[in-house]
Amino acid sequence: MNESFPSFSIGGARRAVRAGLAAAFVALALPGAMSLAHAEKADQNKPINVEADNLTYDDLKQVTVATGNVVITKGTILIKGDRVEVRQDPQGYQYATATMAPGSKKHASFRQKREGLDEYIDGDAERIDYDGKQDLTTLTRNATVRRLQGLTTVSDTVHGSVITYDGQRDFYTAKGGNDVAAPGNPTGRVRAMLSPKNGGPAPLNGASATLAPSNSIQEPNP
Fold first, then answer.
1. Which segment of the chain is annotated as a signal peptide (predicted)?
2. What are 45's strand-pairing partners?
3. How far is Cα 16 from Cα 159, in angstroms, rounded to an integer?
4. pLDDT band for position 201 (50/70/90)?
5. 2 falls within a domain
6. ∠160-163-164 over CA atoms, to 5°?
7. For 163, what's the count of Cα atoms within 13 Å in the CB-facing half-sphere?
8. CB of 72 within 8 A of CB of 65?
9. pLDDT digits (tens, 9 = 90+) for 72-101
10. Number of domains in the chain
């Protein structure tokens, strides 16, 4: 039986999901916060398109599950994962969760163009959640977010356990955790590389900046 689901478009059986998968990366939740441009505003009114190996839709629960090389686009927004679940509440707000298969060495990913600029916000994590009601995007476990110039050059990088974007306030926060602990960062603190406004960003395929572990930074003499 063919279900009528106007939100998706996947070939003959695919239909466009009309959701608010939008996020903003506009201010750092750190001392000396840096102002960034808004995310692409036109994305808010674009339909969601889903491509996947398999798709199921539960009309009663208003839940759609796509699995197998899932690609979601909404305007300039691009989300990829092994499994993406889209839910709709009674008020029409939609929520999406993207994950990878257990044991996968790859991460779910997110990307969106910035308004009026040839720049993109690009991120990946083991799990990505979007809350269309509050306009929040949350990257969880081994999360990394980059600000790219033209998809090829990294301007800023933030790495942490959980990174959350608040599209309503144009603000984001990053938290540390055990999942990002490493020999040079045993307590799993947040790491960030922030380029000055007129500084020289690094190529996307270049080596990551080396940050001194916190326990090796000496306090100044009184």
1. 1-39
2. none
3. 33
4. low
5. no
6. 165
7. 31
8. no
9. 887 888 899 999 998 889 988 878 899 999
10. 1
> Is residue 189 a part of any domain in this protein?
yes
DSSP-derived 3-state class of residue 45: helix
The structure tokens 């959350």 sit at: 164
What are the phi and psi torsion angles at 152 (to 5°)?
A: -120, -20
Query: Do residues 172 and 166 touch, judged by C-beta distance below 8 A?
Result: yes
CATH number of 55's domain: 2.60.450.10
CA dihedral 40, 46, 51, 52 (to 10 degrees): 80
Q: Is 36 part of a structural domain of the chain?
A: yes
What's the pTM? Answer: 0.71
| Distance (Å, whole) CA 151 – CA 122 | 9
List pLDDT tens digits, range 126-135. Answer: 999 988 778 7
Amino acid identity of residue 47, one-letter, is P
The reply to whether 1 falls in a domain is no
